[in-house]
Hints:
Elements: H1 3-27, H2 31-69, E1 77-87, E2 94-105, H3 117-133, H4 141-152, E3 156-157, E4 163-173, H5 176-213, H6 217-227, H7 232-237, H8 239-249, H9 273-281, H10 289-303, H11 307-322, H12 326-343
Antiparallel strand pairs: 1-2, 2-4, 3-4
Helix pairs in contact: 1-2, 3-4, 10-12, 11-12
Amino acid sequence: MNREQRGVVKAVSVIAALLWVVLGLRFGWPFWLWIALVIATIVAPWLVIWRYRRWRAAKRVPAELVETARSPQPPTNERSLSGVPLRSAHPDYQFLFSGKVIWYSKPDAPGLPHADPGGLAVDLVLEQAAQLVAEVAPDEGERAQYRLAAALGAQRSDPAGHVGAWASEVRLELPESDADRIRGLADARKDVELWQRARNHERDKRAYLADDVLKNPGSALVWWLARVDGDVDEAVRQIGNLRRLTAAAHDTRVPDPDLDAPHWIGVVPAGQSTMQSLFMEEFELGGNGVGASQHVLAAIEGLAAGDERAALSRRLAEVLAAHGHDELAELVRDRFTAADRQELPGSDAS
């Protein structure tokens, strides 16, 4: 009986005793009568509880005697296992199982006793271990070891009931060569994932440049304006380069200039510097010395005449010489200086 139950008994006893006192005073009972009733009411519940406890103790004695009379637990035996291969979830990888198998023979087993109860116990443990390990990936052996130890720690019996067996000190390991191979494969997967991400980033960047930025010269020009923060003059100077870059991005050829007849260079009226810069964007050098000289000479002849041409040729020769084109500068001087001298009166006498 717990403390709460004892408290209830005390409360009921006190209430019953008070009731006898009230009744005795009300009906004029003799003093000794209601005093006896009060004492009996208080003592009776405890006598009943005491008798109940003795009866329960007497009832438990036979069960305890039966437990004591039973035969003691038969002695256990042990067999150690080391490096037993068990197939993992991957068919090419095997775990090495180690541990200690504990078993005992059941005396009440039906039929004849087993010839090798230790082998039967080991087979019971390994059978369940193989079932559990077959679902474990090769790289999850350390975590699976604890789950395997918990499962094999419970006692199990064979279907015939000859032995009871369980395992302790369970270890599950992967051979060192396979462990190194697993780590190498994991590193390779990480490298491949990183390379694929870099390749996808590069592919997106190429698609953005080819399909958006260099879709046509207009989109390329707008892209350039955004990069140079609205520098219109620089954007105008880059129109030719952007046009050629757009053509190269889409594998289309820009028509080469006619080096023998550079008729696209004409006289530009004075005061139209912007138009002149646009004409100069169409001026393309041929990539060799002869073509460059023809373009330069043709440009001087087409842009000026007379004294203006002589001044232009001298300035252009100075600019070419300053940039290291000494041969082309000398050609310009010889060509237009000689032509200017022939046009001046009295040049032969001099």
